[in-house]
Structures are given as structure tokens and as C-alpha cells.
Amino acid sequence: MKKVLLPITLVTLLSVLIYSCSSDDDDSAASSVIQTPTPEPEETTTQYTLTVSAGDGGSVSSEGGTYDEGTKVTVTASPNEGYRFIGWESSNSKSESLTVTLNSSQSYHALFEYILGNYGTPFYTLINNTTGTSVSNAESSGRFISRKEAVERINIDNGDSGTYILGDQAQALFDYDSDGDLDFFGWLVNITPASSKGYVSGPGKWVWWPNYEDENSTPKYYDSPLWFAAQYEMNDFNGDGILDLLWQNENYHSDGNGGYYTDHYPLLITYLSENGITETTIGPPTGAHDTASGDIDNDGDIDIIEAEWQYGSCDHISVPTFYINDGNGNFTTSKNNLSESLTFLESNSCRDMVFTYISLFDMNNDGFLDVISGYTSNQDVQNYSSEDQNLFSLTNYSPNHIKVWYGDGSGNFSLKKGFRITLTTPTQPKGVGASPATVLGANFMDFDNDSFPELVTTETYNYSGWGIRVYKNIEGTGFEDVTSNYIQDPIQLHSGASGAFAPQQPGDVGISYDLQIIDIDNDGDYDIMPSYPSNEDNASTVKTAYFENVGGSYSLRKTSN
User: Fold this and answer.
1) What's the confidence (pLDDT) of residue 532?
2) How far apart are CA 193 and CA 160, in angstroms?
3) Which of 230, 364, 366, 490 could form a disulfide with 187 if both were Cys (CB 3.0 to 4.6 A apart)?
4) How far apart are CA 261 and CA 274, in angstroms?
5) Chain-centre distance for alpha carbon 447
6) CA distance 334 to 323
7) Whose CA is closest to 206, among 175, 234, 171, 176?
């Protein structure tokens, strides 16, 4: 039985195999189709362009480029010397570093502006940088208001109803808020014709003109309590970072008719803001011929010294007055900080310690401010009484000396530890009867690069002209007159001067009570500029006068509006 089944099984298997092969042959005869898989879409990256550029006065860390969408890029603007960064075009950011996210193509332009008054000033030590002298140099606008400019823009001319003109030494043209625009503050003297008070007929006016050179800006006028000889010292007296103006006066001054204008009045500080001014008086009523400011006691705030100008009466002995700051602009007065003052105050000679010039500066490089003072020539001690001579001997004081009173850093000073030089009248003013020489102001610069600052003074010759003088600082121990080594034509008498109080003529540079040391022509060296000379010619357009430094030799230059 098994033998029968085997052939049948083999036949069946062969039939299946034959059928399978026949089926494969039929499939191969059909048309061939090759199937290709559809690729996934390629991912594309969106890119954007960043463009960065710099305006005049600076540079940028990158000029940009092409970046993938969403990339964050930081660029930094850097101002050149003498410029400040003020912002970015296309951005409200005021930061020098700008970070942007690239979700579109973007363009940014860094903006810079020239720092007004940035003419370059001498390098001073930290303690000297606290002085009003240093501040005046740094804040200089490089020009002053000409008489013609004052007539056309500032003065008030209402005839008998009120006539006020800009005071000679009472103009401050500076960028008070560091916004890149010049601002102007000044005092106008009242010369209203309907008066019997001589040159001055009443209290003056303040004029405050923010953004002075903007044609759309306008001045504001305020009543002032000052009558005569208003003059200012610039510094930050309340420590708020904004410059203030300290005003001295001689309200109690001869009116030319046998009397005086009005009573004594205290020193006054004007605090400025965009909306107006605030006045604050400090100390008792006084009369001053000069003031100076600086940190005399090394406590980080600005103190004041006043050259008191009240003399001729035994009821009041004039000696320098010190105003000690509590750090918030509140002052305590003292007459004891100058050790020799006590001897004058206690003496029976009725002699005043009188100065027309006073300043603060570290003259011996010990880190403490010293007092520098001066008065006038032709004050020979032998012409004084024996009692006065004895007083001068006890105190080392003489009215015809320029003196340095050493400071000890605590706010106290002494001539016994200082030095002095005799003030003389040059030959030229003597020849026309314009004597004596009176020191009005000064500044400081290291002419010979020995690290000790020389003293540069401005002086008048009986108010018939003016001049400058250079005194070498002999390592903080003495002075030597070296004017002829540096200054060409240092004496500028009024044209045709033939005696005292010769009138100023057109083209003359008026008498200046102060000096600034700045690189006014931006040539890399320092020039000597009168801060604000008087000018009696209403048609005068002189806006800048300075002794130009050419290879260490200084000659007078003048420019006009």
C-alpha cells in the first residue's frame, strides 16, 4: 500500500513546482515599474543683514554682516577723544553697547557729538582738580560775549524805564548740564538814566539762557540783589554733579558822589536748572574783591575763601574769610584759618590784610591746597607806620608781595611755612604814568615740565590796560619772574594811554580779572586766554583773545564774531 502512495505524492509535488514556475514566467513578461521614494523637503535657513556705521567723532566694534534669523548680536560704540556718544539712529537706546535680535534686516548708526569747551587742559593732581581754577579751564567755551553781541541779544534798553547792560566780569558761557549745548548765565548792571547814583543806578538783573546758541531759545530775566562788581567762581558747591556759580559783590562801593551805592551784601550762590534759578546767600554781609574754591580740608567737598574788601575803618579789620562746607552746600564762616589773621585782628594798628587776588592750588606737591594771594606794587613797607611795620614783620605780610600760604590739609594755612616774591611795576606802564601794577587773577601751568606748576597772573596798570606775568615755581619754595622767557608783548596798554584810568579804545582787549589755560586752537599745546575781558566799545566784535603758544613762545591773537 505504501508503494502505491509514493508515486502519487511525487506526481503531486512536481505538478505544484511546474505550476509555480509557469506563474513566474508570466509575471516577468509584464511591463517593469521602478518605484522611487519621495524625498523629505529640505529645511532652508532665513538670514538677515545687520549694517552698523559710525558718525564723526567715534567708531563701532563691528560693521555688521549676515546672520541667521534669531541671532543676537552686540555692537559697541566708542567715542574719540573730545567727543561723547549720544545714541543710535533707529534705536532709543542711549547705551554705548547695543544688542539686537535679527528678525529682519536692520541698520544702526552711532551718533557722537563734540564736547563743547573740550580744548584740552593741563594735567593737574586730584586735589588741584577740586579748585575753581581747574573747573574754569575744563568748562571754557573758548570765547566770551562780545560787546556787540551783548547789545544785540542780551542787554535791556528801555530808556528811563530800565536800562541794563552785561557786566564786564559777569558772563558765564558754558555747558552747565553736559547736554552738548552752550548755556549762558550772566548779571546785568543797572544804568537806567534816571538816577543820581553815578554809573550804577540800582540793583541789576540776572539773565538765564539755556541752549544759548539755539535760535529757538529765549532768555529769562530775574531781579538781582547785586548792585556793583558782580563776579563769579564756578564749582559744584552742593555736590549734586551740576555746576553752580558763586557771586561776589561790592554793593558798598563809592557811587562817585560822595556816598555808597547800598549796604554790604553776602556772597550768593545761584543754582541753575532748566526751569529757572535758585539763589542762596552764605555768610554775613560783606564786600569781596576775589573768591576761590576747592577742598581745603580734604573731606571731599568744596570750600570757599574770600578776599574781603572792607577797609579803612578800625571797626572792621579785613582778613580772608573761609567758608567751610558741610558737604551739602551749607557753610560755616571762619577768620581763623589763616594763622597770621589773628595777629591782624588783635592788633591796635587798624591795618587790614588786603588782597585783590586770592586763589587755591597745591604749589609744593604735598597733596594739600595752598593759598596764593596778591595785591599791588609800590607799597613799600618803610612808608608805613612803625606799628604797621612791626605787624608786617610778625606775620611775614607785605601788601606788595605775591604770597603762597602753605596748607596742612586740615583747612589751616600759614605764611611762615610758605614763600613770597615782591610785585614790581614794569617799565612800560611807568613810562605813561600807569602805575602801580595790581594783580587781578591767575592760573597755573607747568611750563618747564618739572612737575611744579608755574603761576601765570593777569594784572592791570592803574586800569589803563592789562598784562600777564609768569612766575617760575622753584620746587615749591620760591618764585622767579620768567615772563620774558615765554611771553611776547605781555603788556597790553589801552591805545593812547597817558595816565591812570585811560579809556579803552576800539580794538583794545579789555582788562580781564581771570585767565584760562586751554588748547584753544587744538594744536596739542596750551594757550593763555583772558576769561572775560571788559569791553567798553559797543561796536566791538572781539569774541576771543588769547596768547597763542607757538613752540613755547606766546603771542596775543584776537578773533571776532
Assistant:
1) 75
2) 6
3) 230
4) 33
5) 21
6) 7
7) 171
